[in-house]
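Q: Two folds, back to back.
A: First:
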Amino acid sequence: MGKYILGLDAGNTVIKAILFDLSGRELAQSARDGRSSMPKPGHVERDLDELWRNAVAVIGHCIAEAGVDAGEVAAVGCAGHGNGLYALDREGAPLIGIQSLDTRAVGIVAEWAERHVGDRTYVHCLQRPWAAQTPTLLAWLKRFSPALFARIGTVFLCKDFVVNRLTGVRGSDTSDMSGCGLLRMLDRRYEPDLLAAYGLDDCMERLPPVLESADIAGHVTEEVAALTGLHAGRGRVVRRRRQRRRFRRDQDRCRLGHRRHLEHQPGHHRQADPRPFDLHAVDLRS
């Protein structure tokens, strides 16, 4: 069993790492600023390769600062900002990272308001479209950047990209996909009528598999193990929505977790899930 837990938080501006022992005592932390670019008015994007380099850097610096063996990390928890749009191409390479500060789609939102599109989406996801919402941005790319849209293989969120780089797995969880208005809330699944409301009825194949957040999602690669010192043959990674974090230990398993707040609309009552939080796990064992 490993001795440490590593947390990652990938925000719009900074990615942070923090290391704990299994009693919860903080051992070290590290942070690195990222750069946003604004190629056009209202467009706010980031270099995904830089985001991954910064993730590797803060992992390495945090572990070095603590003076511990990275192979003894039993769990890694990953949080990230919600919405925006992070995409891989059909070969799995980083394609575009649009941050949740972006406002390019305000025109589409206004157009949809006139057509009462929000009434159609609300019945499924309890949300109405807004400018930096993931499906709204995807609809914008489909209309105004069709060549780039055609190259998209997977659309997901910020922390999903970090986990993808760690594991090679394209996936997300119910917490983030519901938080960005892409799941039917009643049963937390993709809904063709919801996608059609956004004009994205041809995009089902671009959406990643969605697991409950405690499910195992993949394995840390040997390449990443060489970059970070994390043990490719031990542990699993758990994703969580940003805000609150909960880690569960398991012998020879490391988890990477994320949690992000989902705002519930007034009057919405949902049956409680017996699990305390949504978790999305990635098994690090090769």
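A: Second:
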Amino acid sequence: MSITPELYWKWVETYLNSWNWPVLPLRGPATPRGLKWTEYRQKFPTWAEWQRWRREYGMDRNIQEWGIGLLLKPANIWMLDIDDGSQFPKLLPHLGGYLRLQTRRGYHIFMRAIDLPDELKNKSVILLELLDVEVELHVNTLSPLPPSPHRKDPTFRYRWEIEPPWNGEVPPPPTLLIVKLEELSTGKKVDVCSTSWPRRKPKKPAYTGSRVTEEEIISVLEELGISYKHITIHGIPAIRPACCPLCLQRDSGSWVWASTGVLRCFAKLRCPAGQSEKGLPFEEWVELALSKPIKEGSSA
């Protein structure tokens, strides 16, 4: 598959200006000579810099050789590399809705970065198994984006199967991956979700409505039979339920801000908290969760 300079620069402009992703030019597997990607750990490349590189390297003369690389850590994005595409169906229930591009043999899955356990913070690539599938989690590398050519097979170009939305927003990691990272760091098995399903009809907990505390949030989740863990998002305390208390989806990336009780969820098509741009206030989602009929045999 060949590309034109017009198509290439359209993608550069989309990544930089529409999605606000820090990207650099690639020639083969790395940036061109004289351009050190480590210099852009603290600042984003600009369109003016790209135009300077365009002139200096004469990129339009041999545009077929050039690719585009995403700086994962400055972008606050992780990339999950599934090298064997035939194994992807095993992970599809957990990763089916994520941003996905096709590689020569498998897939790259993109998700928003979260705080890593201290034992893993210094790693650029983390090797792990998800449901017996060997994968690589890239947290601080330069990841090729469409329409980059493959470094070993220039006739193949990376292509999006599921593109980001217009603003380049990516969802947080699925619970499956979060649990695996915690197990790697602690060496202990982690309970993913409460086993008390089908859920019993919960009693409405007492809370003030004027000031939400962590204890009130936890009380609601426990009454609903949902396990949880304490996390931080960009340094802000939050509570991660094992499944969303409204849509009951395990990998919806839902969380509750510990200070306000606001529920956020990325299951935008099926969850009221996902359909609300700023999430649902504590009183609203609690009332919905408690009034929701519990069907015998339902599961999260």
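Q: And?
A: The longest strand covers residues 66-71.
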